[in-house]
Amino acid sequence: MALSREQIAQRVSQELQDGFYVNLGIGIPTLVANYIPDGMEVMLQSENGLLGMGEFPTEENLDPDLINAGKQTVTAVTGASYFSSAESFAMIRGGHVDLTVLGAFEVDVNGNIASWMIPGKLIKGMGGAMDLVAGADNIIVTMMHADKKGNSKILPECTLPLTGVGCIKKVVTDLAYLEIRDGKFHLVERAPGVSVQEIIEKTAAELVVPAEVPEMTLS
Hints:
Elements: H1 5-13, E1 21-24, E2 43-46, E3 50-53, E4 76-82, H2 85-93, E5 99-103, E6 106-108, E7 113-114, H3 129-135, E8 139-143, E9 154-155, E10 170-173, E11 176-181, E12 184-190, H4 196-201, E13 207-208
Parallel strand pairs: 1-2, 1-5, 5-8, 6-9, 8-10, 12-13
Antiparallel strand pairs: 2-3, 3-4, 6-7, 10-11, 11-12
Organism: Paraferrimonas sedimenticola
Keywords: Transferase
Protein name: Succinyl-CoA--3-ketoacid-CoA transferase
């Protein structure tokens, strides 16, 4: 069975490490904030000027003035700090973020990512994605493996305008955890109940499949 958006975020949360500074992009990545392991110190950074985001608020602790880069209301942890967007992007461009989690429309075998524009559709702009992919070495992409028509979003070559070139190495979809190495996608894990054959059928790019593909552990 394919993963839900929450389960994708749950799998990504396993890549967090104590002391990490982490930027969560708009969409599925924001959900990772709800799955930080107990006892782990992780500081979440937002492009709009917040370091130290917490979980999404309940009705009791909602502050309409406290938002993330996607204009969703958030909470702030003890020790959080606020600053200008200029300082925020200086952190990002300076390589001070340990892990970046982004959504995407397409990813290809060369580690290229298209995440900001679909021609013919109204958009507000690229946001901070271009800076994030340029300033981070450790990036995880979260996305659906295929679109609503069943067309693969894991491609030999991106067809949409690119956000970044050669910057992606890890992808977590609703079907699988993939790594990009040597110009190919490598199947590392499959979602619980999802067959290897289904992943192969929904992957347009070259996919290296080991003899044994373990199921993801979600906890």
